[in-house]
What does this fold into?
Amino acid sequence: AAAEVEKECMFDKVVTPSDTGKLNRLVIPKQHAEKYFPLDASSNDNGLLLDFEDSAGKPWRFRYSYWNSSQSYVMTKGWSRFVKETRLEAGDIVSFKRGVGEAARGRFFIDWRRRRGPDVVLPPPHHRGFNLLSVGSDGFACPDVNLLPILILMIRCRALFFLEIITLVLWAVWNTRNDVIFTGISPSLLMQAKV
Amino acid sequence: AAAEVEKECMFDKVVTPSDTGKLNRLVIPKQHAEKYFPLDASSNDNGLLLDFEDSAGKPWRFRYSYWNSSQSYVMTKGWSRFVKETRLEAGDIVSFKRGVGEAARGRFFIDWRRRRGPDVVLPPPHHRGFNLLSVGSDGFACPDVNLLPILILMIRCRALFFLEIITLVLWAVWNTRNDVIFTGISPSLLMQAKV
DNA sequence: GTTGCTACCTGAGCG
DNA sequence: CCGCTCAGGTAGCAA
It folds into this structure.
């Protein structure tokens, strides 16, 4: 039934970790929200209930509203169930469509597909310390050829090594000055300190 | 203007690391909150917006409310901006005052000053991975004698060292498989890969 | 106590 | 540099 009516794609979204996580909401990019799901002042300011069908004809109902504080449009109630039952994961693509033609005009459809490519986690930009893998424009993962992160990692390693040494020295010096009871590591440094 | 009206101090608070950190809130000690910023049932249960002026006459607006879950009074919205713009740090002192006399009664003022004493960072307890310095009961810094953190640091260093090696190996292997253009480091590995 | 949901809030990134 | 967007949060409540 649902598979046979004529539809047109409104927009796709590559879902983020937040969209599939415990926040229980899907952010609808503002441009698409305002184009396809307008919230007039006349519509209830508590948001709307929107009905969708998936490709198997299964109905899904989401609460759709606007968050003033973040100035964003979201699907809330009903969304977490969708994530769970379709086992949606970050990086997967959700596709919003609407019916065209007399039989389906005004009906909404929702569909989803696995992300292409191997199982790659896309950390948020500010958490990207270093990546061994990146995602190319073709949607497939590839090793990150940007070598800067590797260099940074190496430098960090060296820095930590020095920190380790410095810590031990500081500790030894402190023991020397305060003549505290020896508590168990680095006997050689201690001996040296006590001379 | 603000500097010339008569004020009286309500209370000072030595701000904690949480007050200046990512929690974006200032806890108001309950005794002072209930005395000076009462939240009646009649007042909006969403909290209040309180306006303050600093000694330069600059206005600051904070959302002030009660958190049931922690049974504490807090300044939320607006507080993080205050922290940033005044470069407030843990240990600094924030002073809440109110106007007295006909010209200023009912107006609130806020002021801040640097902590006295040495430059000591007080990390929140659950972030204390390792400290080279602790703060003694006299308020002065002293080396931390807890050695566990040092051991953890050493282990971390070793782990990172292995990561570094693994990264280089992976990179070399990838170069081998894809025969990409050499981009600039580790000529020896590259040569090996190209053979 | 745990989960789902509403309504807030902020910072990073980007144009 | 400024303003917008939105990913990632929090508090509080209800079931």
About this structure: Chain A has two domains: 7-115, 148-194. The longest strand of chain A covers residues 59-67. The domain at 7-115 of chain A is CATH 2.40.330.10 (At1g16640 B3 domain).
